[in-house]
Amino acid sequence: VNEVYARVDAVEDKVQAFITLTKETALAQAAALDAKGIDATNVLAGIPIGIKDNIVTKDILTTAASKILTGFEPVYDATVMTKLHEKDMINVGKLNMDEFAMGSTTETSYYAKTANPWDLSRIPGGSSGGSAAAVAAGEVSVALGSDTGGSVRQPAAFCGVVGMKPTYGRVSRFGLIAFASSLDQIGPITRTVEDNALVLEAIAGVDVHDSTSVPQPIADFTTDIHKDIKGMKIAVPKEYLGEGVQAGVKARVLEAIETLKGLGATVDEVSLPHIEYGVAAYYVLASSEASSNLSRFDGVRYGYRSPEAHDLETLYTKTRAEGFGPEVKRRIMLGTFALSSGYYDAYYKKAQQARTMIIEDFKKIFADYDVIVGPTAPTVAFKSGDYAKDPITMYMNDVLTIPSNMAGVPSLSVPCGLSENMPVGLQIIGNQFDEATVYRVGQAFE
Ligand code: GLN
C-alpha cells in the first residue's frame, strides 16, 4: 500500500487517474491485515485495488465523475466491494471516468483530465480511463471498471493492459451507479490475464440485491487457464476487419490470428451481418435507459443541490441544469425523445429488434465456434480534444465493443503489439458464461 502511494506521488500529477485517494483507510486496513496475518491460500489478500468512481463505497466519496454527486458519501457498499473486502483486498482510491460512464475518452469527467501513460497528449480511452491509466502507469496492478458499450475493453486496449467485460448477469450490479441497466457490467482491468481471472472469480456470483444476476456454479476461471488451445475453433467476423479499422491495428490483429493458429487453433472467417446496426441501436437503447435511471438525481436525495432553487420545480430544473455536463444532457434528451409516445415504435422498439438480430448472429456463430476474435477498437488512442470536435465519430469508435454488450457475452481485451507506438488490443469474445474459455485463449496468446 505504501508503494502504491509512493508511485501515485511520483506520477499522478501527469496521469491524473484518481478522483479520490483513500490513503488513511487503506493504510489502516493494511495494518490490521499485518496484525491479523495473511491467509496463505488467499492470493488476493492485501493486494491494493483501484475502483472506478461509479461503484459505491461506504463512507467514501463516490461521484461518477459528475458535479451532481458532489459530496455524496454512500451509506452502503456495492456488492463487489463487499466481495473484495471478504478477500482482504485494499481499496486505495476512486478512479476517474467519463461522467456517468458516458464517453470513450474520460474527457467528460467533471473532475480531471486523465492522460494516457504511453503518450500524455493522448486520451486513455473511456469511460474507465482512470482505471486503465492507473494500471498502465503502475499505480495499481488491479482496478475495477464498468462496461456498457466498451468502457472496460477500449481503455484497456488504448493503455496496453488487460480488460474483461463478463457475461451480463455474472457480476452483481448492486451499487453500480446505473447508466444502461440492461447492458452494464463491472469488470477487472489488470496487467495480466491470470490476475484478471482471479479478480473476476472474487467478484462474480448471484446476488439477492440484483435480480438480473444469474445463479451459476462457483466461478472458476483459473483451473484450466494454462491448458493449450489445440483444436479450438476461432471465428473472425469479416465486419471486424473492414472499413474504418486503421491499417496498423489490422496488421497487429492479423499477426495475433497467426499466433493463435500457431498454437493449434483453427481459424475461419465468418459474418455477423447485423452488427452494422449495433452503434445506432445502442445509442437509442443506452440513452433511453439512462434518461430513466438518471431521473433520481433531482437535488433531493444525493449530492449537489442548486443554491438558486426557490421551489420544487426550480429545485429539480436548476440542480439538473447545473449538475449534469453536456454529454449527459445530450443522452437524457435523446433517450427521453426516443421513449416519448409518438416516437417509441420508430426508435426504441426498432432498436430492440436490431438487438435481437445481433443476439441471433452471435448464437449462430457460437453453435460452431469456441471464441470470436478481432480488434477491440478500430483505432489506437487519439489525441485529447478530438472528442469535443466530433462526438459522432467518437460514437462510431465503439462499433467493435458494443455488440458484446447487446448480446450479453463475455469479452476480453489483451495487448497485441503497437501501432504508431501506441498499444493495440485483441478482443476475444466467448459464449455466455464461458469466461473460462475466453481467459484460456487470452492466456495462451499472452
Ligand atoms: N463509449 C460508450 C458510451 O459512451 C460506452 C460507454 C460505456 O461502456 N460505459 O456510451
TrEMBL record:
Q: Where is the Amidase domain?
A: 1-438
Any Pfam family from its record, for instance, is: Amidase
Any single GO CC term annotated in Swiss-Prot or TrEMBL for this entry: glutamyl-tRNA(Gln) amidotransferase complex
Give this protein's Gene Ontology molecular function annotations.
ATP binding; glutaminyl-tRNA synthase (glutamine-hydrolyzing) activity; transferase activity
GO annotations under biological process? Answer: translation
| Protein role | Allows the formation of correctly charged Gln-tRNA(Gln) through the transamidation of misacylated Glu-tRNA(Gln) in organisms which lack glutaminyl-tRNA synthetase. The reaction takes place in the presence of glutamine and ATP through an activated gamma-phospho-Glu-tRNA(Gln).
Give the record's subunit note: Heterotrimer of A, B and C subunits.
Q: What is this protein called?
A: Glutamyl-tRNA(Gln) amidotransferase subunit A
Organism of origin? Brochothrix campestris FSL F6-1037
